[in-house]
Design brief:
The protein starts with 11 loop residues before the first strand and ends with a strand. It has two domains: 35 residues, Ubiquitin Ligase Nedd4, Chain: W; 137 residues, Nucleoside Triphosphate Pyrophosphohydrolase (Alpha-Beta Complex), CATH 3.90.79. It is elongated. It is mostly beta strands. The relative contact order is 0.19. Helix content is 14%, strand content 39%. Strands 4, 5, 6, 7, 8, 9, 10 and 11 form an eight-stranded mixed β-sheet that branches. It contains two helices and eleven strands; from the N terminus they run βββββββαβββαβ. It binds zinc ion. Zinc ion binds next to loops.
Length: 178
């Protein structure tokens, strides 16, 4: 952060609050500029007992398989955001079943929410962001080609919970880069 978004001054000082949190404070107008984690919303799409994954056409992790997800926009709900991202990346109108997992990446400062989603048809569309879409049998998940650790977390817990009678939300976290 180089300039104050309130007064335009470049006199911004970095402070450590109680040795725990970094704060950027403008010395001209005294505004504290908070920086907080971003929310990523997405889907864990299931079509007839198969997992739908998108192959990324852009960086980061170009060429790796990903659950459709992206940054939540202003003025939308988490469910609207998850459905919008799924539509943007696959062209499909998915049906949200429930919240499946919540994952904090402390390295990227992001919170990822993945919703279990039902895919009703395969009239998908590829685009710059998604260069391939594939259905994977649960025994054939490309674990070493998954784009992000949040994918691994969501999918592993989904498979492990298939026999559970009571659905639950899985909560995880990591310091890993991906
Ligand atoms: Zn200022």
């Amino acid at each position: 952060m180089n300039f104050c978004s309130k007064c335009g001054s470049d006199n911004i000082h970095l402070m450590l609050e109680q040795e725990r949190f970094v704060r950027y404070i403008c010395k001209a107008c005294n505004t504290t500029h908070y920086r907080n984690p971003l929310i990523v919303v997405g889907c864990l799409p299931i079509y007839e007992n198969k997992l739908l994954l998108c192959q990324r056409g852009i960086q980061p992790r170009k060429g790796y398989w990903n659950l459709p997800a992206g940054f939540m926009e202003m003025n939308e709900t988490v469910t609207q955001g998850a459905l919008r991202e799924a539509k943007e990346e696959t062209g499909l109108d998915m049906e949200l079943v429930r919240l499946h997992s919540m994952y904090t990446s402390r390295k990227k400062n992001q919170v990822m929410l993945h919703f279990l989603a039902k895919v009703n048809d395969l009239n998908y569309q590829l685009n710059e962001e998604t260069v391939a879409i594939q259905l994977f049998d649960f025994e054939a998940i490309p674990w070493d080609q998954l784009a992000f650790h949040s994918n691994t977390f969501a999918i592993q817990n989904y498979l492990a919970s298939l026999q559970d009678s009571t659905p639950k939300v899985f909560i995880g976290d990591s310091f890993k880069e991906n």
